[in-house]
Structure formats: structure tokens, C-alpha cells
Records
---
Amino acid sequence: MGTINHANQIIKKLKSEGHEAYIVGGAVRDHLLGLKPVDFDLTTSAKPNQVMKLFESRATGFKYGTITVLMDQFTYEVTTYRTDGPSEDQRHPDYVFFGTSVEEDVLRRDFTINGMLMDEHGEITDYVSGQDDLKQKTIKTIGEPYLRFSEDALRILRAIYFQGKLNFSIEDETYEAMKKMAGLLTTLSNERLIVELSKIIKTDYQLKAIDTLHTLNLHHHIKGIEETIDVIVKKKKSITPETFFTVAYYFDEKNMSQWTFSNKLKHKFHTAGQLSKENVKLSAQHLFDYGLEIVKLAARTQAYLFDTSYAMNKLEYMYEHLPIKSAVDLKMKSTEMMALTHKKAGAWIKDVQDDMVKKILSHELKNERTELFLYFRETYVKGLKHE
Ligand code: ATP
Ligand code: MG
């Protein structure tokens, strides 16, 4: 988040010190489209240490020339003009050269609509015909698309993302290159893939973007999501990132379990995926075992997959009114169970608790002391005598 006022202040300050500076990239594009830019990237002839001297800042990407400037509570990425060296991992260039001209800096950027510069008076400098492509609503690489995609395969997915965000079409040569170079997607790190796919799914024209991804067969080069993409295209029904990844777990747990989600998210997608099977009727027991969030996600995923309706408020009500929410809330303590049976602590206690909880959840028992003691004596103490 940021404001154009701040961005202009940064430009003025850099200029007053004899440097060049412009707003560049998505902010210029969005500004010209009449959309409110979210983030402001600036490009400057000043070297990173010179930028740092002039502003309150953090050296977030010093090696790549990026300094994050702080203004009020907002941050602005200020990057020194650069050209990128080759990239071993198609991720970060192995090294960058600080460039001497802003034109060089523009030429390393991905698409023409992301390559325009704007000064503090709103004056546009455009070396790549970005304005024409913006008018034509076209996504086109800066320079030779095959070369640009081989430098960084993420750009293939970025083209899809901008299509989803802006509802633009992809220029023919760029489109052909995306199709032919699809195999390069296997070189992307899973972290980058997760971020970019999530961005695509969150766009306004998600279905259009996913349709292109499908038509270009990109999904065959992203292990784990093939069937999910097929299903979305078939259903023509929009999806959220969480439901997307749960559906993917549902179809292809084996490949999805290799993805680098946090353990918490893995557990969530895995469990919700398991619960999403058509014949699973989501119950009080599920709410008790996995919590409201996971069960709601499962309900949404079931609804997506089987076109059933779901009543979120019913699940919420059910959760609110669970007769017990955790085994520690049982009105009979494990020490009491041990005393009554003269047995030592062990796995049997958990079994008894699970049994009691199950009966409480199905309203066969009340979570009340006398009732639990009676039930315990009846079921477990008497049984012991016959052992
Ligand atoms: P968004 O609205 O999603 O923020 P953006 O165009 O600002 O879109 P960012 O990912 O914020 O995209 O990147 C800022 C700018 O940096 C881009 O506009 C583009 O000029 C350049 N850029 C970003 N990623 C790449 C890349 N992988 N290859 C080349 N240039 C890139
Ligand atoms: Mg941006």
C-alpha cells in the first residue's frame, strides 16, 4: 500500500540530489487504467547506498539494488537501474549489473504494459509501446517472448495473472511462446508457484485466466493440479484459493503433499480434502475433531465438487451449540477413572474419553458428573470384574 504523493516526494528528493527517478511498473499501468495502484515501485539512477542515505529505509534486496523506503506507515520499493545477468535457477539472476540508463532498466521488465515510466508530474516515458498495448488491452512481452520466458518461466504464469486481473488478451507471439515453453514451468520453485497460482485465483477474471492456462496445457506441467484445473474449466464456477488447494488434495494427495505449504495448511487441506468425499456427512463429531474452520472448508469443497448446497450458518450454529468442545471439558477426570478401576494411566483412558465424547456429541449422554460416573461404572467397572 502507498500513495502517489509519497512516490512523487521520493522522486523529487532523488532528483534534487542529481539523480534520475521514475515510478515504474504496475503502478503506472494501473494509474493509466484509472485503477488505484496498490504498490509503488520506483526506479532510479542512484545506487542503493545513496538511496539509503536519503530516506528512512531498509535494505530489503540490496544485492539486487532494491531498497524499501518508509514513509509514514507505507513502504516503497526503490530499485537502482539494472540489467539482469543469467539465472541458474530461473529465479533470481545470479548477478545483476547496475545500469546506466533507464531504458536498459525497462528492457529487463516482463510485459510492455509493465514497462512504462512516470515522473512526478504524471508525464509518461514509454520505450516499449506500452501505451498502445494498454489501449489494445494486450499482454505482450518486452522483446523476444521465447528469450524472455526462458530467462524466467514465472513470466508465463504472470501473463495468465495479468489476463485474470485486467481481462486483457495475450498477443499472438507471446501466446505461442507460452504454449511452446510450457515445459519450463517444471523449473519453478514450489514457493513461487504457490504465490503466483494464488494470485491468479484471486483475480476478477479468474475463469478466463484458468481457461487460458488449460487451453495452453500449462497445468500438465504443474504436478498436483491437473484434475483440479480440468474440473474448474468444466464447471465454469469460480473458486477461492483455499478451496482450490483442497480440491487438489482431494484429487491428488500424493503430489500435493510434496508442495511446500506450512504444516498447518497441509493439515488443513489434507483433512478438508478427506472430508470432502461425497458420502461424508459433516457432523458434530467432525466439528469436535477438526474445528469449525476445516469443516467449513470441507463443506465448501463438497459443494464445489458435487454441486450440493451448504449451509454455513448451520455449521456455525452446530459448532456454537456442541455439547462438548474438548476432552478436557469432560466432567469426569482421568484420575477418577483410575481410582475407580485401580488401573494405571494408559491409552485406555483416551479410549474411554473418546467413547464418552462420542456419546455426548450424539446426545446419548449428558456431560454431567453423575451421568458420566454411572455410565463409567456400568460400562467399564462392571466389565472389569468379569475380566
Ligand atoms: P501487481 O498489480 O500484481 O502488483 P505489478 O506489475 O506491480 O503487478 P509486481 O510483481 O509488483 O507486478 O512487479 C513490479 C514490476 O516489476 C512489474 O510491473 C515488472 O515491471 C517487474 N517484474 C516483476 N516480476 C518480473 C519478472 N518475473 N520478470 C520481469 N519483470 C518483472
Ligand atoms: Mg506491484
Note: The chain is about 50% helix and 10% strand.
---
Amino acid sequence: MTDCIFCQIAAKKLSAKIEYEDQEIIAFDDIAPKAPIHILIIPKKHLESVNHLKAVDSKLVGKLVLAAQKIAKEKKIDRSGYRLVFNTGPDSGQIVPHLHLHLLGGGKL
Ligand code: 5GP
Ligand code: ZN
């Protein structure tokens, strides 16, 4: 989706501080961090939200969580703790309609 900002970040058409990348997913610093460490982990393929996941996406979702675990360890917040969040739909405050996992940590939340 060319008008999706996270698809543009995944395609390197929009810049972001990339923390992790492989063939299927990319992780980058949130532009407006709500914690000392605030990283967004997304699938490169456009999926709107948790509501749009299908059984075929289950491995991909697992990869997002395992990437969060790996980044948390690299950032040395695996022992102090962190929060993982998938905002889904209007009441959650989801503003970007491309599935993303928030990794928040580095201080008391
Ligand atoms: P949501 O509220 O949809 O779950 O979270 C979207 C997040 O994306 C917000 O925390 C917001 O700060 C972040 N964000 C929005 N636009 C951009 C952008 O262009 N670049 C980056 N790196 N983060 C963004
Ligand atoms: Zn997208």
C-alpha cells in the first residue's frame, strides 16, 4: 500500500531508525516515544490490525513477538521488564492502520 506510512518505512521510502530487520519484519524507533525505549515492530506485508489476521499469519505474529524479545535483550531491558502492545481499532487509539507491536521499556511504565 503506497499511501501507508509503515509500508513506506518498510520499503525505505521514509526514513526511520531501524533496530532490526529480516525478510518478513522490520523494527524501528517510534517517532514520538512514550517511554525511554519505544520501538515498533511490524510485518513488511501490509496487514491492517489484529482484526485482519488469519491462521496463515500465525507464524508471522510469533516472529514479531520473538523480535521484541531479541531487541529487549539487546537493549538490556529483558530483566528490568517491558510492555508489548497491539493497539487495535478506534477505542485503543490505533492511528496507523498497519499492524505494529509496540515495545516499551527502559523505565517504570
Ligand atoms: P498506534 O497508536 O497506531 O498504535 O501507534 C502508532 C505509533 O506510530 C505512534 O506511537 C506514533 O508515534 C508512531 N508513528 C506515527 N508516524 C510515524 C512515523 O512516520 N515514523 C515513526 N518512526 N513512527 C511513527
Ligand atoms: Zn502498510
Note: Residues 1, 4, 6-7, 46, 98 surround zinc ion (ligand 2) (CB under 6 Å).
---
Amino acid sequence: MPLRDDSGRIIGTFGISRDVTAQIQAEKALAHQALHDPLTGLPNRIALIDRLSQTLLAMERHPARVAVLFIDLDNFKEINDSYGHDAGDLVLAEAGRRLSALARRGDTVARLGGDEFVMLCGELESSGAALLIGDRIIHSIAAPYVVAGRDFSVTCSVGIAWTSDAATEPGNLIRDADMAMYEAKKAGRNRSQLYEPAHCSRAEKSVLHSELGRAIENSELFLVYQPLFALKERLVTGVEALVRWRHPSGAVLPPDKFIPFAEEHGLIGRLGSFVLDEACRQLAAWTARGSWAGAFTVAVNLSGRELLDPGLPGRVAEMVRRYGFHPAQLCLEITETALIAEVGDVQEILSALSAIGVRIALDDFGTGYSTLVYLQRLNADILKIDRSFVEPICRSSRDRAIVAAVTAMSHALGMTVVAEGVETSQQLATLTGLDCDEGQGLLFGAPLSPGAVVTLMETAQGAVRGLAPSAD
Ligand code: C2E
Ligand code: MG
Ligand code: MG
């Protein structure tokens, strides 16, 4: 307020001042709290998105490359559960410090919550540079943590996404890095993974989960049957059941689109039960129908996870009883890689299955690391040579030699040898010459509906004899 003398002239001012230090401090604290994580003092998600937006905006004027590294501690929950949240908090705070120490000037390290951190790196020379930073992070996080006199060790998985496009949505870049982190976890943790657009999103994954669960209940899954032929006799000996998914969109999905997913997400048990039951029911129906079906076999693929289920032999025995076919008419196919990955009690389960009288086939042989010794121990009845050996067999003497050796070895162990993926009559002739017993592949027939199998069997012998003899 102006202060005036008697004549009205301004001779001074009058004001009241208030000390607002405390208020400003409180406001600053609130603003800090709104943008920072209280435990580590690092910027939070809101602050991260703001900084990423600014970095991207700056790229409009100065072209550059920016990377988002999404870091998630592996098995962090175990520390919390075993040693309490205080220990967990100390590890998180220390992890935050280590990440900050790695960051260059201008980089941002943020904590998104839980055990998730993000490092934002601007001005990268290349995506390879981002991988190098990822390696340093993995190394630094893995160093021991000493909390209350105890040693802890934690590893982390890092997903990396980068862009040089200033128009990139900040949220999308973080989401892509998150997805790559998820892939790193899947690949075995303690590693970094660069984002590849092919990774399907978590949202898509959860849709797939509920869809596949429903597909099993709603009979959207069905089986097709691919014939197996005895090479010398030129006779159909049986079929392999292969699962398909008739998706409500109308598309028919092949197994590699959903079996790995079912294995990872706990759906393989239900899926496998459906396949086993359906194949056995079909086998019984064929056996009841045609004289040709007496010695006819149906092969069912088992995933490694199913093999770990101690209830499997009981279920198989129940199928044999319920449907009344001869146990040797059922063959269970197990891939070499599944056997190696799922060691444990597999041996016992395999013996229990053999005791029922069903046959065991080692599928995709040659794609894992099976040795002769291993083969002997497994006691399989059938060995299926992977099609990667069959495909080059006419042009590669090395592959011919491998198939010849594997066949001789299998015969010595009393096994039947089946060649997978036979597509040409030249391959057929070579395989016959190498003493291979049976074949499966497009040359003999693609997977068929159950009705088409009947037609094939009732008219087959002529068609099989009609296979053109090879020129060589
Ligand atoms: P697999 O057991 O080795 O089955 C053979 C695969 O090779 C089948 O593919 C078949 O369609 C394909 N194939 C047959 N002949 C030829 C040929 O001449 N050339 C070529 N290029 N391919 C040929 P499919 O049906 O896509 O099955 C792929 C894999 O999925 C199977 O490999 C098996 O490991 C798995 N699978 C299929 N059905 C089931 C199931 O019911 N349960 C489980 N756990 N796995 C299954
Ligand atoms: Mg198979
Ligand atoms: Mg196979």
C-alpha cells in the first residue's frame, strides 16, 4: 500500500510479508514425491515418460538414437519371502545405486515399481552399444549384496528397445522393452534381449491363454492323421495323430502356433489328455470297422511336460482298457530334446509305459544330442529320423552316411527306423537302399481326416504300389 503525507504525496510503501519457506519446501517435497520413488530416490514412471518425451522431442532437431533398457530382477520374490521385506528393500536400493553408477550423464535411471527398473540412454552410437550397456547392467547387478551381515545374490533380465524415429510413442518404446525383457526371462533369465517386433504382446498372450483354454472345452481342437508306410512292403502300417486348432476366426492353426504356448502356460496337461483320448477313441472306432485295422497303429505326440506327470502311465493304461485295442497299437512319440530337458523321473515313467505294452518312439532324432548309450538306456521301440537329415539325403553323402549309421545302430538295438519328411521318390529309393524300415511324408500323403484314412485303407494298397519306382 502506498504511504502518503498530508498533501497526498507518496512517501513510502506499506506491506506485510509472510515467511513461506515451509510451504515452498512442502510443495517441492510433494512435487519430488510425485515424480520419484521414495525407496530408491529414483525418478518414477511419470518422470520417466516425461524425460523420454523430451528426449524424443529433441530428436526432431538433432537426429539421434535412444534406447530404453527394461530391467527386472530375477526371483526377487524369494529374497522378500525368505529374508523379509527389509532385506528386499535394501537390495532394491542397492540395485538402484548400481544402475545409477552405470548411467552416463544425461541418461535416466527410473524405478517403475516392484523390482522393475528402466534405464533411458540417449545419443547411442548403435543398437550394439545398447547391448553392451545391457551386459554391464547384468554384470553389475550380479555382484553380491551384503545386507545385515548376509550375502545375497540376484541376477536380472534386461529387455532393450531402441528407436531413431522422433515420432515414436514413449509408452510404446517402454512396452517393447518390457516385452523383450519377458523374452529374456523365457530364454532362461540373467541375460539381455533386444526387442524384435515379432514378440507377441502380453495382452495378446493373455487373449491366447483364455482362447486356448476355451478351445479345449469347445472342441475347437481336432486331430488329423498322417500315414506311415513300410518302405519295402509298400504298406500303410499306421498313422500319426497331429493336433490342429480350428480358431473361431476360421483359420486352422498348426501345433507350433499353440503347443509351445500351452506348455509354458500350464495348458498342456488338458490339451494332451484331449489328444490322447481322441486318438484312442478313433483307433478303437477304426479297429471295430475294418479288418485292415487289426495291426494298425496310431502314434500320439507327447510333450516333455506331459512326460513329467507321474499319472501318465495310469491314464494310458485306462485308455487301453476303456477302448479295448491291443496296447502295441498305440505308440507314444517323445522328442529327443524333451527327453534331454526333462531328465528326472522320465526313465521310470518310460519303463511304466513300456510295461503296459504301448510302443515308444523317439521323435525328431538328430535334432538333440542323443548318444548311442542314451538310446540303449531309453529302451525305445521306434526311432524317427528327423526330416533335416532326409531332405538332403540324395545330394549329401555325409547325411547318407549318418542315416546309414543310425539305422544300423537302431537295428542292432532292435528298433524300427522311420524316416520323416519323405517328399520325393529319389529320397524313398535312397532310404530303402539304406535299409530304413518305414517312411512318413508328403510323398505318401499329407495328414488326413479320419474319413480319408478309411478311404485310403480301403483303396490304399493299389495306390501305394503305384508309387513310381525311383530312377536311381
Ligand atoms: P512331428 O511329430 O515331427 O510331426 C511331423 C510334422 O512334420 C507334422 O507337422 C507334419 O505335418 C510334418 N510333415 C509331414 N510330412 C512332411 C513332409 O514331407 N515335409 C514337411 N516339410 N513336413 C512334413 P505338424 O502337424 O505341423 O506338427 C509339428 C509338430 O508339432 C510335430 O512334429 C509334433 O512335435 C508337434 N505336435 C503335433 N501334434 C501334437 C500333439 O498332439 N501333442 C504334442 N505334444 N505335440 C504335437
Ligand atoms: Mg511326432
Ligand atoms: Mg518328428
Note: The domain at 40-200 is CATH 3.30.70.270 (Alpha-Beta Plaits).
